[in-house]
Structure formats: C-alpha cells, structure tokens
C-alpha cells in the first residue's frame, strides 16, 4: 500500500468481480447480474465559484461545493429475462399457457403468400405449437376453364375428375370434308405437356360430334362438343399441333391440403404459432381452413419493455481483481436506467447493453456512508486486512 514516502505497484488496479442487484419490490432478494464486462463509478461534484472583480486579475475568491452526484455504469452481457428487464426498462412477468388440443379450429387465410397466427380466444399467441395440420373446411369443386384463344364452334362438358391441376391443349388439325358435316375433321389434343399428343379422327356424319379428352392414365372427365353451321368446315381453324391450338386450364377437386405445398410448418416460426401459406398454394385469400395442433402447458417468463416507471433497489459488488485491492461495495439505494442500444438480438458478435446507476443518499439509515460503502477486504497479492484498529498513517 502506498505510504508517505513510496508508491506500490500492487495498488494498481486490473479489476474483476461480481455484481448483484435487488429490485425494491422483489421478494426473492439479490440477483446475480452475470458476466458484467465493465463497472465504473463517476463522482460529479458541482461547485459555485466567485471571482474578484476588483482588478484585472480576477482571482478566485471562493469555491463552494453545492452538490455531489455519484453515478455508475455497467456493461451487461448476459441476456436472461431479469437482466433484459433492466436493459429494456421494464419488468418480468409470467405468461401461463394452458395445455390445449386444437381440433379443426377455423382460421381464415389472410393472403397468399401469407401467415396464419394461432391464438386463443383472448387473442393470446400460442407458443411452441406441435403436430400442426391443416385441411379444407369445405371442398373446392373442380373447374374447367374457357379455351384460350376462344373456340366459338366448341363447348366443353363434363366434370374434371383428374387428381391434379392440368392444362389440356386442343386443336383442329384437319378440316371437315364437306361444310356443315363433321365427317373428316381431325382433332388433336394433349393433356399436360409431359404426355404425347393424341389424334381423334372424326368418321361419323352429322352437324356435331362429342370427343372425350382422355388419355389412358389421365382420365379428365372432360369432353369437347364440336357443332358446325351449314357453311362451316373449320379450314381456317386448322393448326399444326395441339400446342398451337387453344389451352383449357382445369382445376382438380380440392378436399385436402398438402404440407409444404399448400401450407408450411417450420420449426422456428411454429414457436410463435405461425403457419405459412406459400406462393403457389391452392389456397386463396379468405379461404377458411381447419387447423389441429397440440399446445403444451407452460409458464413463459415475459418482459414488458419500457414501462417500469422507476427501477430502484440495492446494488452489491464483490471484487476479485487480477491486480489491486479486493473491495466490497454496498449501495443501499440506487436507481438504474438503460443507456443506449440493447444489441445482439441480430448480429455477428456477442451482444451487450449498458446500464446507468444513480446512487441516492440514505442518511437516515447510513449516516456515515449515505451513498455507498466500499470496504477493502484483502488484496490480489494475498495481503489481508490486519486485525485491530486501522491507522492510515502506518
């Protein structure tokens, strides 16, 4: 320890230690603040000064201390809810989630792409939902679209029965032999681009003919009805292939939804009760679907940010320096406020956040140490405090 004659290298400080805090309304007592990267104390002294105005030297005549304001700062690196409540100027609470088995609960698709949020009757989000499945509330019937380009001489009848959405390509590839008679017409059609075209030669006479647009392994249930007027032979409609003709888009009956196609359940987003509707889903905006899921019973610790009003309590520091004296700090009444950003929620390095500490005076209970008490209890070099009465002059 430095004395009247010499300095001592062991009095230099490279500090480390533990910090504890107890909020005023916390019945659980002190809470370890974890790994605090920095802890500093600042003492601001406010003075009022008076300079002479009797000559040009204007020397200082008097200086009076009018206020002392001890403050501190801490750089926090552990993100437990207790610490985050301090860093976000809020408080800890508990959200109680009751175990629930959702069975065919109705939800409306808000948009495609879009997100469905699983919530209870009070609007509270369901967390960590499991075994999520979805299905149609009402089957969507199959549909046969109009040909593009239009075919004024043809209609399409029947109910589309194939299990998948498909495009049917149709063309007149040979004209009728005699106007007003379908005999000699040749129709070429193709169900999907992955199937070979199929040729249907008309060998019957009359003003109309019905042609089933089916492949052997892809029965569509759709037929094309061609009707000719007295002067029609469709020579002007002849195309080189089915693809060069008209396209009829057919939509299959939808009675079920396919995971990862019509809806997506991800491990990450389902923690927040999200179900994603991807682009390309057979669902449409405002469709109603039925959702089943398992909701676990749990007590989730929550933090309400920004509404603490005041964070007041006791602060303790237990020093364990690499170099220097070991001190214990006891602060009876402090106020804590966040200072700056709480980083690390998204980032490429460990996050941190800063807290400011205001030491309040407590003369009533601690007259000799109104703001805080700093007690030397040893030294990193191994020198312990001597027993008995301490004489600062020895």
Q: How would you describe the shape?
A: rod-shaped
Radius of gyration: 41 Å
Q: What's the number of extended β-strand segments? A: 23
Main sheet?
8 strands, antiparallel
Low-confidence blocks of residues: none
**Average pLDDT, all residues:** 93
Structural class computed from helices and strand pairing: mainly beta
DSSP strand content: 35-45%
- Spell the H/E element sequence: EEEEHEEEEEEEEEEEEHEEEEEEE
- Give the CATH topology of the largest domain: Elongation Factor Tu (Ef-tu), domain 3
Taken together, the total number of domains comes to 3
Number of discrete helical segments: 2
Distance between the termini: 10 Å
The helix content, as a percent range, equals under 10%
Tell me the CATH architecture of the largest domain.
Answer: Beta Barrel
CATH class of the largest domain: Mainly Beta
Describe it for me?
The structure is a single chain. The chain has 394 residues and is mainly β. It has three domains: 9-93 and 305-379, Elongation Factor Tu (Ef-tu), domain 3 (Beta Barrel); 99-140 and 255-296, Immunoglobulin-like (Sandwich), CATH 2.60.40; 143-251, no CATH class. The protein has helices spanning 81-87, 267-270, and strands spanning 17-23, 31-32, 36-51, 60-76, 91-97, 100-108, 114-117, 130-136, 143-144, 154-158, 166-174, 186-191, 198-201, 208-212, 222-227, 246-251, 274-277, 288-295, 298-304, 312-319, 325-339, 353-359, 372-379. Strands 1, 2, 3, 4, 20, 21, 22 and 23 form an eight-stranded antiparallel sheet that branches. A five-stranded antiparallel sheet has the order 9-16-11-12-13, with no helix packed on it. The N and C termini lie close together (10 Å).
């Amino acid at each position: 320890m430095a004395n009247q004659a010499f300095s001592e290298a062991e009095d230099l400080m490279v500090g480390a230690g533990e910090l504890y805090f107890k909020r005023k309304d916390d019945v659980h007592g002190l809470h370890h603040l974890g790994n605090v990267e920095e802890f500093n104390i600042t003492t601001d002294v406010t003075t009022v000064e008076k300079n002479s105005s009797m000559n040009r030297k204007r020397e200082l005549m008097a200086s009076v201390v009018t206020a002392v304001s001890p403050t501190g700062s801490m750089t926090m690196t552990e993100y437990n809810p207790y610490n985050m409540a301090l860093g976000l100027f809020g408080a800890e609470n508990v959200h109680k989630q009751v175990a629930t088995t959702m069975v065919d609960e109705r939800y409306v698709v808000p948009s495609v792409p879009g997100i469905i949020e699983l919530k209870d009757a009070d609007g509270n989000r369901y967390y960590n939902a499991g075994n999520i499945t979805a299905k149609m509330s009402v089957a969507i019937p199959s549909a046969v679209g109009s040909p593009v380009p239009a075919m004024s001489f043809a209609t399409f009848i029947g109910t589309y029965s194939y299990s998948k959405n498909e495009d049917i390509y149709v063309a007149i590839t040979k004209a009728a032999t005699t106007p007003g008679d379908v005999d000699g017409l040749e129709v070429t059609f193709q169900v999907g681009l992955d199937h070979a075209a199929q040729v249907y030669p008309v060998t019957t006479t009359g003003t109309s003919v019905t042609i089933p647009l089916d492949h052997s392994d892809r029965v569509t249930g759709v037929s094309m009805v061609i009707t000719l007027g007295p002067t029609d032979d469709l020579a002007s409609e002849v195309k080189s292939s089915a693809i060069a003709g008209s396209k009829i888009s057919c939509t299959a009956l939808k009675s079920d939804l396919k995971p990862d196609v019509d809806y997506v359940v991800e491990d990450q987003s389902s923690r927040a009760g999200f179900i994603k509707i991807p682009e390309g889903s057979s669902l449409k905006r405002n469709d109603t679907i039925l959702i089943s899921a398992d909701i676990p019973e749990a007590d989730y610790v929550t933090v309400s940010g920004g509404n603490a009003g005041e964070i007041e309590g006791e602060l303790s520091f237990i020093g364990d320096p690499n170099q220097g004296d070991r001190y214990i700090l006891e602060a009876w009444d402090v106020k804590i406020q966040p200072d700056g950003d709480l980083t690390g929620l998204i980032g490429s390095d460990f996050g941190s956040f800063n807290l400011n500490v205001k030491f309040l005076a407590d003369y009533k209970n601690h007259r000799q140490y109104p703001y805080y008490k700093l007690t030397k209890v040893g030294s990193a070099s191994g020198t312990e405090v001597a027993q008995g009465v301490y004489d600062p002059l020895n």
